[in-house]
Here is the input.
Amino acid sequence: MAPAARAAARPQYGGVLRVELRAASANLNPVKWKAGSGEFAANSRIAELLFDRLVVLDNYGRFQPQLATEWSHDVAAKRWQFTLRQGVKFSDGTLLTAGEVAAALRPLLPREMQVAAAGGGITIQSAMPAVDLLEVLALGPYFVYKDNGNGVLRGTGPFVLESISVSARDTDKTGADGAPAQTQRLRFRFNENCWNGRPYLDAIEVTLGVPPLKALLDLQLGKTDLGELSLETAKRAQQTNLKCWISAPLTLYALKFSGDGKSESEQRLRDAISLSVDRLAMARVLLQKQAEAAGSFLPQWLSGYAFLFDSESNLERAKELRKTMAAGALGAVEPLRIAVDANNELSKLIAERVVVDARAAGLTLQTVKGTTRAVSESVGAKSDGDVQLVAWRYTSLSPRSTLGSLANAARSQSAGGEMSGDADARYAWEKRMMEQKNLLPLVAVPDFAAVDARVRNWSPAPWGEWRLADVWLEQGEVLNPTRDAVGKASVGARP
Amino acid sequence: MSFRTKLFLLFLLTVLASVSAVTYSVTHYTRAAYEEMDEQRTAALVSQFQKELAHEREQVARQVENVTNADVTLKMAIDQTKPDPDQSIYVRDASGAAQEHGLDFMEFVIADGTLISSAEYPARVGYKETWVTSIKDWNGSDAFLRRVELPSEVAVSLTAVRTQPNVAKPFYTIGGRRLDQNFLASLVPPAGLRALLYLNLDSGFVPADVMSSTGKVEQAEKFAPMIAQLLKQPGPLVETIQWSNDADSAETFHALPLTGRNGELLGALLVGSSRADLVHLTRHVMKLAAAVAAAAMLIGLLLTWWVSARITKPIEELAEGAREVAAGHWHTRIDLRGQDETGQLAAAFNHMTQTLSTQRERLVQTERVAAWRELARRLAHELRNPLFPLQITVENMQRARQLSHEQFLEVFNESTATLKAELANLNSIVNRFSDFSKMPPPEFARLEINEVIRGAVRLFEPQFHEVGKPTITTEYFLKEGLPEIDGDPELLHKAFQNLVLNALDAMPAGGTLTFRTAETQAGVRVEVTDTGKGLTPEECSRLFTPYYTTKQLGTGLGLAIVQSVVSDHRGTISVASEEGHGTTFRIELPRRQPGTTAKKTQPAIAEEPPTKTAAETAAAND
Amino acid sequence: MPVAARPDALDEGVGRLARKAVALPHERRMSLLWTNHAALQEQRVERLRAVFAAELEAAQVRFVQGETAPALRVTIEQTPTQIVITATIPAEGSTSVAIEEVARAITGIDPVSGNTVRLEKELLWQQEGKILSAALLPAGANGGKRLAVLMEEALLIYGGGAGNWNLEKTKVLPGPRQSPRSARGQLIVAGESDDRVGVLLPGRRCEASVADESAVACGNVTTDLPTGRLMALPSCGKQTWWLKSDGVDWTEEDRLLLRNAGAGRDVTAIAELGMPGPVISISAADNGGSATVVVRDLGSGNYEVYRVALACGD
Here is the structure.
């Protein structure tokens, strides 16, 4: 025991934070990231270490200056001006210029936005009113970086990529989850030139392609400090002494129909499936209260009005619809095939529940092996089944932008016109999109992670940012894991 | 059938019957003994299976009891008795319990039947399992077979259910092991026996549901009828399955149905016993019997030879003589001496042939005279017609001599024209007779009768549809793929032309002319049918007599030519007619002519029409 | 560039929402159901409600109590950047929706997320003798705070405040003595400004008055001793939390863990506080956001009484 460990409240410098991520590979170039894709999370978590944004959002809803120190916009919110922080240096020692900021943001911003360097700042000119530009910039791919032309991206962030090594994966049993046989290890060293000051940590070692079960074991054995977990392993982690983190529901699982949904029979089938699925039971029972029932595209934490959408099942109504279906219709006798990623246990479980629920309404569904692609990637791609179970990762703080990307992915062009920033209009827009049922939201699942007790001052954002730059490590003796066992055994024996 | 053959067959039958009787009784008793032994072995294996199953039942029940009594389960059960319990936290617990206790299936169900944890189908958590709650206390109950639904398949499980004894509200633990081919691995069948497992997993029989301890079973679809019967009525069943055409591939299957709690069929143990040994034994017996029968047959043959040489040879000679007579050799004599019955028979036969020969010569002479008379009568009649105008003309000319020169010249010119015409007429009559007398012998070649008919009719097509004349419709029912026959294309062509002409004459007001061909045993049959006025029976009987005609004009040679051609082809012609309903000529031609070689002829008829046109032919024949 | 806070921004937003609601088809008589899921203080919410109601009443809408009238529901939600106020307005069988957003940054409220809840401890008392339970009592008639300390055989009442506690009363517990090794007990404080203290002992429940010299009265009951304390603090939002100990062995230092209430037993602790030894009991303190915790200090062997309080914000 080290009594000093508990007493320590003052941040300490030094130490290497070991991080294990589930993603098999990382792409640090934000231009290459696809909105809504699962890899987005891992990529941006790593990019956070290297690059900065113009602004970030704090937990109190306030935009905090980063590379931009001031900003303003005209009355129509079409022209935005950002004043850049002076004296910011890239990790190679060169000064950050407005031109470089504009060049970095230009390929990332939507087409209707023009970015230009102007004096000590940049201007962003939008064709449409961009009331939510700060929300857009505070998350997602909008990092500022410099491409030296040799493929190495330089940032102004708290860390610098020191090395990349590839090693054969440990042969111990980690569960078959389709992870590659190789693991990539990225080492980040602190950036002395960081405008925000040197981070507490000396280095961060990120190991990629670690299955959740292995991450949990490594955490328990003290082999890692921060591990990305799955719903299942998080549940187990909570029963141990590990400090667990659960984000807001960040990944939407939805059914995506292959057909155009124009025919009446197809629409009826979609209605019947939607009514038969008990999303609440799925979230509360099957996913053990770790997920949120999704009756809309945007989650409650992002839109604030998701509760207005009805996510309750109505089996009786579903049965009535089933009765009106033609005997030869898909889903009546001929099973409707749901393509599911065989490697994703959660997807499989959700899809199987959809099958079970639909069966209660007399519908015949069947899961087939497919690949769970992010909704964005499945656009235009040939589907393996009649329906696909897709996963959508919320990667923007702007409800408008998120809804736009989702509509695009769900091919709901007919939702009508350009969406204004107004919440009423957005709600109406989402409602129309929901009625088309090209994409049927089921549940939204959060991110899970656990940290070792010696990791201090870790306060990740509910929307998924890990903010590792503020973390420091307790340098004392590492807590003895046997303490957990003793602690568990004595529960209930207390007065 | 010859007497010799009959004798031989009688002998053979006697031998075969006795050999068969012996063979049958030997194989019968062998089979009975074999089957008794087989049943004993099968029963032993079935009882071994049942013992294993009982053992497994006990094990499953014990393991489920262990899970039920585990502290974790007890805690779960106690938690459920509290008000508003949280059911979501146990979703995964069943999976762990199943692994820990070596069970394939594990589920926890609370008092109202809600499934709160499932190892095999987590997606169903939250749904009700009402069958469990129908019994409040499962403790002490045996494990039973049950269909278990899995996410992507159906399995059969040996299931045990236990109720948590120490809590206020019922809490059920359902555990089970999968019944599949692995279970068969524990059985050790004796040589020649094998155990298969059928599981009723799909609606209706699916071959993949039959499995052996090593996995798939070849040709499992052959079990379909057997399984269908089991499904109809689950009960022990014995059936033999033939795996290939080879008899020794047969296998007898004893089916032991495996049923669930409500008597529903969940599967069956199929104990197969190969019939190869029995088949080999039976075959050996049969071979022996065959050898005995063959030897007996050889002896029979020799015996028959000897007997026939003594008894049947004279009878055969007599039969040969009778055949000769039938073939027209009227002077046949049989050279048989002796005073026995056959000798007397031969003498009587010789006498008979002599008498027949005399009678026939007389008849031929009479017929010949009659024919000549008819010919003379006909010739006289034919010639008289032109001769009378000749005579009148000549007399006119004689009388005209008294007239003036100009008048005479006029009469003379008229008369000479008449004379010329009548003389030409006479000439034509003479030619036709001459033609008939010159009918050549047929020259045979291979030909297709349909082609000949079509060729012959084609010449008349223009006539059928001639303007101002009644229309003749032709109908063809010509069977395709008729065998080629040996025939003279020229002669047959002529014969059919005559038949068509005859029909045209019979239908002055138009009608339908139908051609049919068919294959007969000996060759082909051609039928030409008109819808004309028809013939009386009397006319029918005289139809083929030369120079007989029912027509006002014509020589009466047409049908005689037809008959002549047909008989030259060793065929037959007959006529069927009813007055007022048309006439049908039926010609049967043999396939082969003696002494001809297969020589395919060009359908010369169709492509090279005869020099005379059909009309000319008609004129010539009538 | 932090935005200047405009405290009335929310009121304006609610006003706009009310005007939107009036413009939508609506009934003349409605009941008003008001739900707040954002981290707004109760007084603030009441003010917003008043603004909303006034605006609708000006448009001839009458708000009535009871379930017979159709319900106009207003819900205040919070997203990362916005306060979202939603009104669902019933009219002739259908429901229309009006939504209004106000940027959180300009509302000037100090919202608190779960991550910023802290636990703070303050040592009140320590002694060598074994303390079964202790409770900081709300101010009595004479104004000063009182501390009730339950020992094996008696209930002691101290007055005077932190650092200056004076023994005021000693109330002997009637009935059989508990054996020292397994002695257990828990103080229950019924409510504010109540002078009565409940004492839970194994198999018994006693009542004691701290204001007078009356004897402790006991009756037989079988109630389990509580293992934690439900806490809430208005300034930390509308949530409630469970404060429980980590429950280690009596030979080790323990921790106090704060978890969201009603979220199941396995949720992550959102705040923790190390204690110098095993936690003996957790009881009520002077308000809903604090607790009185008895700990045996492993360093000194003394029994210590702490006031543990919730704290929010930076």
